[in-house]
Amino acid sequence: MASTQKQKKAAPARAKVRPAGFPTRQQVMDFITESDTPAGKREIAKAFGLKGQEKIALKALLKDMADEGLLDIGPARAFHKMGGVPKVTVLRIVDVDDTTLIATPERWEAEGQPAPRIRVVERGKRGALTIGDRILARTEEAGKGWLAHPMKKLAKATEMLLGVVEEMADGKLWLRPVDKRIRKDTPISDIGTAKKGDLVLAEPTGRPPRISARVTDILGDPFAPRSFSLIAIHKHGIPHAFPEAVEEEAVAASKLPLHEDKREDLRHLPIVAIDPVDARDHDDAVWAAPDEDPANEGGFKAIVAIADVSYYVRPGSALDREARKRGNSVYFPDLVVPMLPHQLSSDMCSLRAGQDRAAMACHLVIDAQGKVKSFRFSRAIIRVAAVLAYENAQAAIDGEQDNELLEPALKPLWACWALLRKAREKRDPLALDLPERRVVLDEWGKIVSVAVRERLDAHMLIEDYMIAANVAAAKALEAKKAPVMYRVHETPGRDKLVALKEYLATFDIDFALGQVIRPSTFNQLIKKVGESEEKEQIMTQILRSQTQAYYAPQNMGHFGLALGSYAHFTSPIRRYADLLVHRALVGAYDLELPAPKDRAIPDRSSLSQEDYENMGRVGEMISGHERRAMEAERETIDRYVAAFLSAHVGEVVKARITGVQNFGFFATVEGLGGDGLVPVSTLGAEHFFFDEAGKALQGVESGDRYTVGQRLELRLAEADPINGALRFELPDNPSPRGSPLKRDRTRPKIHRGRPTNIRHIGSSRGKHKKR
């Protein structure tokens, strides 16, 4: 017994005896640090030719080094220097510094040491990485920091859960998700200080299938004013708080002198800004007058004056870095998340009536046929005569409202626009006049109405002036061979055109794929449809067949506008792309102004070397930010619509079918929007065929057919403001189920997969397969 105990005590001491030629601690450390590939126990043993007992000794050595804080173990059991980063590891992108993405290790367990900020080096086009993305990367130390070379973009890990705390009859707490795509609630394991009904952020814990939620942040009452916007901000990770340094720089920049003597003085002109009635900032104003040059008889001169944001937001500044990180302003019904701090976005850069403002002026000469004969750009000082709502400007032109600017400003603007419209009609751009929803709130943030925004001539007038200035900016930069951040809209791809052809065939409309596709091709289709019931859904389908527009320094033209060269120049307060175009114009046309006396503000307002070198990367980033903003804005509108309709649950509403799937069809309330599902299980006991090509469900016995675009009356069964979801039923169904806010968890679960009363029809209409 005593002998056995001695052997047990002696065993560890024997393990520490190193064989001859066994690597030292430093040799092991050097190998791990210098290895190009992850170094686990097997790789180390192979490198030093270790076998048998030597491998056991190596295992003990590595354990000792880990215990002593020299080594750590990462993914795939590979070792790396403690406080260092594995050679190949998973990183999460957390920030953007200028144009460089910053990542941190997804797992970091070095006690007492902050996770390193690793610069991501992208080579070639790997797919528009952005904040929140996960990558598998090869890492290396460089100077005092670390570099990461992306190898692969990974699927996003389970993100924070955003939802509302619900208490069931049995007292258990559940997290109800705000995302309508997530159909499962999550049990709450740790509620913290949150209470029933709170909107919260939670992190998932446990392993599938037993995932629970631990509440980390309380966002408040989900029905309070601004909550719908907060949901979108948190869900999409939209930066909404400015760092203190950025706010301070905005205050300093707003005090820069205008340099009136160095700018073209346009304060004598009756320039007007025409904007939505609820506009939060005003970054464009317009003026026009008949051209007095006899060589341009019947023509006009026009000025599109844009806020000179590049004067205040300079390359390399904290303001610039934050603006690039945001990419654009995000507009919600109750608030705006601006690209720039309020000192600039809604004050010094906003073209307020009666106040001197710095502007970048685009001077246009337009001939009698509406063609822009010439253009030039200048840094100017302007004083806007008035800021008018679209409705007021239109009422003045229509003689329904008196306005002292009617003769000196509005009538010349409309007369010049008549020429621009003539040129537009000749160009024949894509004409999809689809309704836009507008949510009107009272001063307490409660919904007054949800309605389709009226489309006026005043809207089209401003659009055409802005398009003319945008084209001029692109062409002016091309003339100087300067870099351009183009707004690109490519021709639709064949796969989408094939889908459109199949869809149009269900209306007996021919669409030849062999023809050259132009915007006019689609306009002719719309004319064929005329004012029939199907017009809106056909226009929607045409819109879905289009490619998504994006920003890039390579010119691929703008298909929708039927333009060869197009850039965004007219909204630098709210779009970073426009700011880059302004900077390029400053450099190309020598429009630089004296350097600021405040040394904290960079000297130049033209493109920096970094701007030049990173145009492609920045284009990808801001295109991604734009898509993020559009999705957040659309989802928020859906939530407001659902909140507005929640008072009408149980009522029969006029609706239109917007989509059909094998599990049911989606419909929208006429004039309001907001898609809701009619489950096929509620259509009765008969079997339904799913006609994929015709996008329809058809009853076998009755022949009842539900197809895209069909108008019908439906009962609103549910309206869930938290996730923006609606559910409808046919009017002759039994009484509607209650609001989801008071739903009963004991009711039967919806069956996943194809409903039992569905049969499927493939791509050929009229033929079906029985299962």
UniProtKB/TrEMBL annotation:
E.C. designation(s): 3.1.13.1
Membrane-crossing segments per the record: none
Predominant location: cytoplasm
Compositional bias (Basic residues): 744-754
GO biological process: mRNA catabolic process
GO MF assignments: exoribonuclease II activity; RNA binding
Segments forming domain S1 motif: 650-731
Record region (Disordered): 727-771
Reaction(s) this enzyme catalyzes, per UniProt: Exonucleolytic cleavage in the 3'- to 5'-direction to yield nucleoside 5'-phosphates
Pfam families: CSD2, RNB, S1
Gene Ontology terms: cellular component: cytosol
Keyword annotations: Cytoplasm, Exonuclease, Hydrolase, Nuclease, RNA-binding
Subcellular location: Cytoplasm
UniProt-listed PANTHER family: DIS3-LIKE EXONUCLEASE 2, RIBONUCLEASE
Reported function: 3'-5' exoribonuclease that releases 5'-nucleoside monophosphates and is involved in maturation of structured RNAs.
Alphabetized HAMAP family for the sequence: RNase_R
NCBIfam families linked to this entry: 3_prime_RNase (TIGR00358), RNase_R (TIGR02063)
Similarity field: Belongs to the RNR ribonuclease family. RNase R subfamily.
Protein name: Ribonuclease R
